[in-house]
TrEMBL record:
It comes from Sporolactobacillus inulinus. SUPFAM superfamilies: Nucleotide-diphospho-sugar transferases (SSF53448), RmlC-like cupins (SSF51182). Its EC number is 2.7.7.22. It comes from the Bacteria. Transmembrane segments: none annotated. This is Mannose-1-phosphate guanylyltransferase. GO terms for molecular function: mannose-1-phosphate guanylyltransferase (GDP) activity; mannose-1-phosphate guanylyltransferase (GTP) activity. PANTHER family: MANNOSE-1-PHOSPHATE GUANYLYLTRANSFERASE. It is an enzyme of class 2 (transferase). Residues 4-268 form the Nucleotidyl transferase domain. It holds the Pfam family MannoseP_isomer.
Length: 458
């Protein structure tokens, strides 16, 4: 069986830790078996490896999440990178074309699609394997997996059977989205299941849909014509039109960690980061990504989340309101993880007198990692090395750098840096427009950078 994990979205429900650059699946607030902080996507991939599905898994994502995924999972996991965001049908169609033309998958292979961030026991992924057998037994177009409800939730969609007869699976009659409590009770009495976003199909099923749309089946060609795919969800484009849909019940542990109150229930520790929670602050969690201490005194049933993007202090039950409260509030992400390390914005100021912007970052580069050989057109940068040793390339010359060194990078200057040991530096950007798009990359690998530089000095 082939697996496609869907990794998308930006975050507001877990603000201020989640933002447009760091979705909830990347937050390192859970613990792995070695008691290290890990993210939801790291946890899921560990579980997939446990059941032998890791090597047959690909991740469909957007350009903005590539470096975060590579930072947390490494570069071995195949990424299907959408040229632009066009909803779940185009994402799944592109992944199907990748499996068909870029791997040894056959048209009869079963493909399971699921979100990248379910919080479940490993048994959940073992149950997914049963979808392949169900497709074979029923000859269904689609085989879904639904969670057996434990209470009449208003937060989830429901998969409703056409009969309550128990065959070990259900024949799907229709779907109901987020009913009220009374309607949810009635659905549960009809043996309805929570829709957890997991479904499977034979590869030829989606490939035939691409053919009917007159679009190329070749992955590289479809990538070029990606904008021609209808901007629509897989549910509307495929599921609603399917004539034969079955669903497999899952009765094990499953939870959506999409809000602060649900996420903190699964955290192994009450506190991450610098601070103090008083003993009389019952059921209160503190997550602090800043270096300054945060003290919580006599406040119970609360979440205190602190990041470079902002500070949230909320009653846990009220925390789901944050998405609504933050609607329309836009700011640049103040923290990002990249494949080479991470950066945190320390300060940003715009000076109206000369229409100039100044942005200050603290950059961390992992040992052995490097920034690309690139230049900027609209800004200059001043780097102050504060920790570690490395080498700095500038316009064909490489020199060693150490703590205390200051590097001034003027506009149009080609430059790169490699960390011989973990590096930290303060970067001050000064210019008329400070945007991430103002990066003209020439070379990515340090070996290529070194080879292109004619001079090397200590």
């Amino acid at each position: 069986m082939r697996l496609v994990l869907l990794s998308g979205g930006s975050g507001k429900r877990l603000w201020p830790l989640s933002n447009d650059a760091r979705s909830k699946q990347f937050l390192r607030v859970l613990e792995d078996q070695e008691k290290h902080l890990s993210s939801m996507v790291q946890r899921v991939f560990g579980q997939l490896n446990e059941v032998g599905l890791g090597e047959s898994t690909v991740i469909a994502t957007g350009k903005g999440q590539v470096e975060m995924l590579e930072s947390q999972l490494g570069k071995e996991v195949p990424l299907i990178v959408e040229p632009e965001r066009r909803d779940t049908f185009p994402a799944i169609a592109l992944a199907a074309s990748y499996l068909y033309t870029m791997t040894n998958a056959s048209l009869d292979d079963a493909v399971a699609v699921l979100p990248v961030d379910p919080y479940v026991d490993t048994a959940f992924f073992k149950r997914i394997l049963d979808l392949e057998k169900l497709l074979g037994e029923t000859k269904a177009d689609l085989a879904l997996m639904g969670v057996k409800p434990t209470y009449p939730s208003e937060k989830y969609g429901y998969i409703v059977p056409d009969t309550s007869e128990n065959k070990g699976y259900i024949k799907v009659d229709h779907f109901t989205e987020k009913p009220d409590t009374e309607q949810a009770k009635q659905l549960i009495n009809k043996s309805a299941l929570w829709n957890c976003g997991v479904f499977a199909f034979r590869l030829k099923y989606v490939i035939s849909i691409l053919e009917s749309l007159g679009l190329p089946l070749n992955y590289e060609e479809l990538t070029k014509q990606f904008a021609k795919l209808p901007k629509i969800s897989f549910d509307y484009a495929v599921v609603e039109k399917a004539k034969n849909i079955v669903a497999l019940p899952y009765e094990g542990f499953w939870k959506d960690l999409g809000t602060w109150n649900t996420l903190t229930e699964e955290m192994a520790t009450k506190q991450i980061g610098n601070g103090i929670i008083s003993d009389d602050s019952a059921n209160t969690h503190l997550i602090n990504e800043l270096d300054i201490p945060v003290t919580v005194l006599g406040v119970s049933n609360a979440i205190v989340a602190v990041s470079p993007d902002g500070i949230l202090v909320s009653d846990k039950e009220e925390s789901p309101r944050i998405k609504e409260v933050m609607k329309g509030f836009a700011q640049r992400p103040m923290y990002e993880e990249r494949k080479w390390g991470s950066y945190r914005v320390l300060d940003y100021t715009r000076y109206s007198a000369n229409n100039e912007e100044v942005l200050t970052k603290k950059i961390k580069i992992a040992e052995g990692a490097n920034l690309s050989y690139h230049c900027h057109h609209m800004r200059k940068e001043v780097w102050t090395i504060i920790k570690g040793n490395g080498r700095y390339a500038e316009n064909g010359v490489i020199r060693s750098i150490k703590p205390g060194d200051v590097v001034i990078v003027t506009a149009e200057t080609l430059h790169a840096i490699i960390a011989d040991e973990a590096l930290e530096l303060i970067e001050v950007q000064i210019g008329s427009q400070l945007i991430e798009e103002d990066i003209d990359r020439k070379l990515l690998n340090w070996e290529e950078i070194e080879a292109s530089c004619a001079q090397v000095r200590g």
